[in-house]
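To whoever is on call:

I kicked off a structure prediction for a single chain this morning and the downstream step that reads the tokens threw a length-mismatch warning. I double-checked the sequence; it's 91 residues and nothing unusual in it as far as I can see. Pasting both halves so you can look.
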Amino acid sequence: MDTIDESRGTVADTLDLDVAIARHATAEFDDSTSLADAGLESLSLIRLAVEAAADEDAEIDATRLVDIHNIGDLKVWLRELAAAAAGAQES
């Protein structure tokens, strides 16, 4: 398992994004479910992004939210945030 900080472990580190998303969703979902149908609001998306980045000081490009239409898109974005955070911590 790739970990950014093994003592903290993050959602994106374990790639168990379904579990993280389920904590914020109000309905069942799969990768093709729209964010609205899953019951995810913008505040929930930002909270998920902060969890994935695992760094309170990480910059999150909220303008990317307009390109996220379904759970699959959300997972891609969260993985990108985690990868960027990992790269920043290695620098």
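Update from on-call: the warning came from a stale cache, not from the record. Cleared it. Sanity check on the structure: The chain has a mean pLDDT of 82.
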